[in-house]
Every structure is written in C-alpha cells, then in structure tokens.
Write a structure and sequence with these properties.
The complex is a heterodimer of chains A (410) and B (107). Chain A is mainly alpha-helical and 410 residues long. Chain A contains 21 helices and no strands. In chain B, the strands form two sheets. In chain B, strands 2-5-1-6 form a four-stranded antiparallel beta sheet, covered by helices on one side. Chain B has a two-stranded antiparallel ribbon with strand order 3-4. The relative contact order of chain B is 0.35. Classes of the chains: A mainly alpha (410), B alpha+beta (107).
Chain lengths: 410, 107
C-alpha cells in the first residue's frame, strides 16, 4: 500500500471512527478529557504506525484498542485520581432507553451531551466539532475566526462545566427528546450557515470545510435517528443548498443570485438525494417542522431547469406554513421575496416595509428592498437601500454582488 | 449530587400569598420525592453586613458585597442525580416562586 492510500485510509478512519472512539472511551472512563486525549493519541499512533505496519484489517477496532490503552496509561501515570475526582465522573445512565426499541448509540449520548442546553451556543458548537467531528482546536478556531487560545479555553470550560454540573451522558428521555434534538440540529445548522455565508473581510465567501462537516454530522444523526422528520428535513435542506454551492459564487468571487445561477452547474446527485428525503417526509404524512418546510421550499426551487418555471404559488404556500410555525421577521422577509414573483414587487415592498422596525440592522432587509425598488423604477431609493445593504453585509461575495447591482442602476 | 438553586429578584417585597402557597406545594413535592435538602428566604440585601477578618481585626461594612440591581432573595438546596433533573426541578421552582432562578452545582 502506498503512502497516499495509507493517508486516505487514515482520513477515512478519522471520519468514520473518531466519534465512535471518543464515545466508547467516554462511556468506559466517564471523562471527556481522557476520551478526547486518548482518541487523539490513538490517531497519532495510526499516522506513525500504519505507513510501516500497514492499515489494520479493522481500523476502528485497532483505534479503540489503542485509545483504551492510552487512556489506561494516562490514568496509571497520573494515579492520583482521588475519590473526589472519581465521584466527578460523568453520570452514565445504564437504564435501557424508553421505549425499548428507542435509539441507543454511544455517539448519540456524546452528541446530546455536547449540545446540552446548559452550555452556551458557541460552546456547544465548539465542543461538537471537537468531540464528535474530530476537528482540532486550531481548525475550529480558524473556522470561527477566534484565537486558538480562546477556542481552547472555550472547549476546556465547556468540558469542565459538564463535569462540575453533572451534565449527564445519555440520550434524553422520550418526553424531552424533540426539544433536545432541535437543540442539536440548531448547532449543526449554525455550523452549516457559517460555512455557507462565511463572514469576515478576508474570508472565503463559502467555507466548504464547514458545510461539509455539518452535512457529515447531520448524516450521522440521520443514520442514528432515521425516523426523525426534522433530522431528515435539515439534511435535505443542507444537501439542496450545498448542491448549488459552486453555482452560487462566480469565478470573480461574486454572489450569483438564484435566478441568475447556471442550473447545469448544480450537483445533480445532491439535488436528487435532497429531493428523495423531501418526498420521504411528504409520504410520512406527519405535520412538518421548520427544517422540513425549508427543505421543501428548496426542493421547489431545485426541481425546475429554468427559473421562469418556478412554482411560486407553491413557494408562497410553504412560506405561509412556515410563518405559522415561526413568525420571525426573517421568515416574513423571505416570504416577501416569493410574493414579489407571484403578486408583483409593489405588494412585496409593502410587506417588506412593515418589517423595518425589526430588521433595520439586517443587510438582507436592505438588499431585498433595493431589488424591489429597482424593479419598481425607484432608482434613487434603490441606490440608498443598496448602500445600506453593502454597509451591513459581512460576506465578501455578497458585498461584490450588491455593489455591482447598485452600480448598474440607471 | 447537590445543587444550589438561587432565587433572583429585582424588587423589594417578599412573595405574595399566592406565590407562598405555590412554593409550599413545591417544597412538599421536593420532600416527598427525596430532593429536599434545605431552603430559605432571605431579607433584603440592605440588611447584609460584609465582614473581613483576614487582617486580624474584623472590619464590618454595612450592605451587601456587591451592589446590584438583581440579588438573591432566597434559595433551595436540592439533591438530584444530574443536571437534567436539577434543571427540571429548578424550572418548577421558578414557576412556583414566580422569579428567575440560578442553578449552581456544589463541588
């Protein structure tokens, strides 16, 4: 086996086995620190040994065994874990989950612990990427544009709180599950969006590493909870969004709006997979949650080859459904964009203007207004709205797009 | 595992009779289900004195150690197997006393 193959095998093992190794060690030793460190050491050992010894027939088993040994070494080495520290072990709930056929996978326990509502959102994101995703602290720090030391402290603090406050290592009870799953999905959606709409003046407009990681983790959760509609919905939403990634930014680094995208450049396989998930949820006949509705909206957009064939009444109907679930001004803004296509820019502008109080600081509010005013021939007002949008936008591709649209005004 | 559940208040004046009644019901439940350790209401922060005897001679300072808009008006110490249970109980406590609460684990 050549070097490239070994490197690929290690990368693949890291993707497939990291969370499993960390989760198994957390269960055995009741300590996230030990689990994380021993898993990292086991992968370092693989990098050192596999090129010479060859890739073991069962990489996962090799990694778990090696990590276990590293953890035991460390505990022996320290050998000063007094009773108090032993008491501080993670609370492991050995009761079988209810109902008896409910999901039980060590990795799910790990995910629910990392996404516990007692942790701040940014701590949940960091901890999930580290413990479940296997990203290194420098990688996570880079992804969120913070200093490595800051990110390291954030993760350390989160782990310390899990231990000190006794955040349990378990899948929540059936009664708490929907709320907790939606907390996990919020973490993954945030990671995805940070990749999709990366902010910062010197940042790539799309951070593929982050969108890919969010999709990978959502796929994992989907495999662990195949019957959960919102998990399927979020995965579909991510896939249908990711499918348009390359078409969404021009060679010159400018955002390409949905109506101007080269639809032939969309990733057909991702679109097909996303559509399959949306159809599966429709067939389930259960009232959809917000991710499922957002996925359905994206399915409508991605099901036609020509933007003029878009079924806007269907899009508006889905937004109406979404507004009932989530009456947030941002949803209302997106609904207005679809309304413009169905009922014309004047109707849409009236709806957008009603959102001023809540969205005056949001660049998309001004960008939407600018576009509607442009279509109504109100150039001067449109220009002012573009100026405001450019001032507020944080994504480099979006700024470039808005600037061009403004400069094209007559 | 024990948790301190502090009741956060920002107005003077103790609990209303309705709140007191709800707190009693909640306390009975804590005791019946084995979560009860201790609980009490506190006088307003203006009744506090800070004492510093680190220098050999005790210094007495009138008032709380921190002047804040919000302060601790009372507390429960509860026994719970983990934070999820502590959060559940604290949420019920918050409802009963009609105030925000803070959960903090004992070491």
């Amino acid at each position: 086996m050549n070097r490239v193959d070994v490197r690929e095998a290690i990368t693949q093992a890291h993707h497939e086995e990291w969370a499993r190794v960390v989760a198994a060690l957390t269960r055995r030793f009741g300590d996230l620190d030990i689990a994380e460190e021993a898993a990292a050491e086991a992968f370092a050992a693989a990098v050192e040994r596999w090129p010479a010894d060859g890739v073991p027939p069962n990489p996962g088993a090799w990694l778990t065994t090696t990590a276990n040994r590293k953890a035991i070494d460390r505990i022996r080495r320290e050998n000063k874990r007094d009773d108090k520290q032993k008491e501080a072990q993670l609370v492991y709930d050995d009761d079988p989950p209810e109902p008896p056929d409910a999901i039980d996978d060590e990795r799910l326990r790990l995910i629910f612990t990392c996404c516990h509502p007692a942790l701040a959102m940014e701590a949940r994101v960091a901890l999930t990427l580290r413990m479940v995703g296997g990203l290194t602290v420098p990688e996570i720090a880079r992804a969120f544009l913070v200093q490595e030391a800051t990110m390291g402290r954030r993760i350390t603090r989160a782990k310390a709180k899990i231990k000190a406050a006794r955040i349990p290592y378990r899948v929540p009870s059936a009664e708490d599950l929907p709320a907790r799953v939606s907390g996990v999905l919020a973490v993954l959606f945030l990671v995805f969006n940070e990749g999709y709409l990366a902010t910062g003046p010197d940042t790539d407009p799309v951070r593929h590493d982050l969108t890919a990681e969010a999709i990978r983790l959502t796929r994992l959760i989907r495999a662990l909870m195949p019957d959960d509609g919102e998990v399927a919905g979020l995965l579909a939403l991510m896939l249908l969004t990711e499918a348009r990634r390359t078409a969404r930014v021009s060679a010159g680094g400018e955002l390409v709006a949905l109506d101007e995208q080269d639809r032939g450049a969309w990733d057909a396989a991702l679109v097909a997979e996303g559509h399959r998930l949306v159809r599966e949820r429709l067939a389930a006949g259960v009232a959809p949650g917000r991710y499922q509705i957002l996925a359905a909206i994206n399915a409508v957009h991605t099901s036609v080859r020509d933007v003029h064939d878009t079924d806007w009444s269907q899009v508006v109907a889905l937004y109406d459904q979404l507004v009932r679930l989530d009456p947030s001004p941002i949803i209302a803004l997106n609904r207005a964009v679809a309304v413009a296509e169905l009922d014309g820019p004047e109707v849409a502008l009236a709806a957008v203007d009603r959102l001023e109080d809540k969205l005056a600081g949001y660049h998309a509010y001004h960008a939407t207004r600018a576009d509607l005013l442009r279509r109504l021939g109100r150039s001067q007002e449109s220009r002012a709205a573009y100026d405001k949008a450019i001032e507020l936008a944080g994504n480099t591709a979006e700024t470039a797009y808005l600037t061009r649209r403004r400069d094209q005004l007559g | 595992m024990q948790y301190l559940v502090s009741v956060i208040d920002d107005k003077t004046g103790s609990a209303t009779p309705t709140e007191m009644a709800a707190i009693d019901v909640f306390n009975d439940r804590l005791q019946a289900e084995g979560h009860w350790v201790f609980a009490g209401g506190l006088a307003s922060p203006s009744a506090a004195t800070v004492i510093d005897n680190r220098g050999g001679e005790a210094l007495f300072t009138d008032g709380p150690f921190l002047e804040t808009k919000e302060y601790i008006a009372g507390f429960w110490i509860i026994e719970a197997p983990d934070l999820d249970m502590a959060h559940k109980l604290a949420a019920e406590g918050s409802k009963a006393c009609n105030r925000k609460v803070e959960v903090r684990p004992f070491l």
